[in-house]
Amino acid sequence: MTTIHQFVTGATPGNAIYNEALIMQQVLRRWGLRSDIFAERIHPSLQKTVAHYEQYRPQPDDMLLFHYSLGSALSDYVLELPQKLILRYHNVTPPHFLVGANPWLRAGAAKGRADLPLFASRTMLALADSAFNEQDLLAANFAQTAVLPLIQPDELFHTEPDPALLNQLRDGRPNLLFVGRISPNKRQEDLLKTLYFYRQINPTARLLLVGSEDGAGGYGRFLRNFAQAVGLETAVQFSGHVSLAQLAAYYRAASVYVCLSEHEGFCQPLVESMRFGLPIVAFASTAVPGTMGGSGILIQQKNYPVLAELIHLLVTDTTLRQTIITGQTERAAAFATDGLLEQFKQLVTAGLFSSRL
Predict the structure, then answer these.
(1) Which domains does the chain have, with CATH numbers?
(2) Per-residue pLDDT, 352
């Protein structure tokens, strides 16, 4: 039996990279291949389904699929293995974007960026989840590359929203939503600035920051202090880690999705917003324009009073709102799970029979 084992730096419920590894594992097994997931850091709830990478027992005919997002002891380990390798590149955030995050995260990012070229000669196929990410691979001299958008399960869209949270958020106040871990590269402070000006138009407006603070370091404290300093402490919700039902409630109750991040390798919440029929305003940085594909509203500069007026239009102008949603729904078709899994199958099949093996 052909074996394709996967390696991820961290295995945590709800994490997009782990979610992709899990859905890939399911489909690989459905194709009759053996596939286990190994990780460096494993959430206690996943101890029975994910093994620590040191438990891997290499076999000569194994193929490895390494989800590369950070430099670590795991990346050193995979680099030294002789087995055939597919690199799944999720981007590594440049460390200068992580000032204020935990030191281990900045160190892992620096190592990940520095070590990427070492994998070029070691890799038979490198799969980037965006055209933006593929540019890193080409710059690092990877010979065989392809773009395969991030694959995510459809479970979120069929999950019943948490009723208590949904009822709490549907109180008539406009809800600005951002989903993503608390991290300096995602520029949550710029969302606070936007909210400040939007509340000059609608004083009831609220900002929902949905995401874990693991690795945030002092940045999370900075955001709370900033909110308090400008009088927004009661207008901002920091959710921390949420369940699938809670995440569905946040999307269902939101008025507008606002992304002012300055570094994204793909940005899955944009796709989730498209599928939930939530209009998007996003800063046109890094992979964001590619993921949006001409849909939504992209801004080229962060003029916060103007951005506040734009958000108000999306909240109040039903014709504009529906036009934006319609375009986003058409774009979302490019990220349908079944279609992406078929692309994955074709790429893996080509890899299995590649002359480079």
Answers:
(1) 4-148 (3.40.50.2000), 155-335 (3.40.50.2000)
(2) 63
